[in-house]
Amino acid sequence: MDIGLSGKTAIVAGSTSGLGLAVGRALDAEGANVVISGRRGHLAEKEAERLSGGLGLEVDLGTPDAPDRLVGTALDHYGRIDVLVLNSGGPPPSTARDMSPDQLDKAVHQLLTQQIRLASLVLPGMCERGWGRIVAIGSSGVQQPIENLALSNVARAGLAAYLKTLSREVAAQGVTVNMVLPGRIDTARVAELDAGRAKREGVSAEEARRRSQAAIPMGRYGTPEEFAAVVAFLCGEPASYVTGAQIRCDGGLVGSL
């Protein structure tokens, strides 16, 4: 099925590995020009070269001017931005009681403030053209806080509130705004979290993974490609009536309605 992305231009933040890279590849497969970005510039360029129409940029969202440089360079290269996929690496594990003010400031800056700035930079063009897609890669912690990931839970919940508010403001201009919530997807980040759990519980990494899988109704971790397919759909024309939504891709992990 053609989802109408051929010739469109997409920025995927934090896309040199993991879920961001899988999304970039999925959008490329649908014919979009894809801007791959991340702190590791050599990887961004390498991955972009593998795409049909890709541009690799070294961008560290921890730096204040990163959103302006990312969007500005993409506009200089392609002339327009039709799709923005918001994404960033997760902050370090922490309990709610133990997170420091400095840690919280950094998490909010990277997962909320900079993501809002990215959206604000692409919105004028999208609204003027009457078509645009903003999709954020969130976390199941937005709906069901994850133990020992307090920084992520707090900052991503703030982004979810912003996106929901924004979705109502730009819907009439043909711009949709959604968030996809991954559960346990088989990435290096999840492997890192499993290793941390193994250490805390005094078990092997394999046992920690088995315990995590046991809590998932499907009994397994998802693949980055399965997650990316959901994001790609939301970026396409068939999803034009879906906005303000939080869509879980978690194998049934979150127990709420």
Automatic annotation (TrEMBL):
Database matches in Gene3D superfamilies: NAD(P)-binding Rossmann-like Domain (3.40.50.720)
Coiled coil: none
PANTHER family, sorted: 3-OXOACYL-(ACYL-CARRIER-PROTEIN) REDUCTASE, NADPH-DEPENDENT REDUCTASE BACG
Name listed for the protein in its UniProt record: SDR family oxidoreductase
SUPFAM superfamilies: NAD(P)-binding Rossmann-fold domains (SSF51735)
InterPro entries per UniProt: NAD(P)-bd_dom_sf (IPR036291), SDR (IPR050259), SDR_fam (IPR002347)
Similarity section: Belongs to the short-chain dehydrogenases/reductases (SDR) family.
UniProt xrefs under Pfam families: adh_short_C2
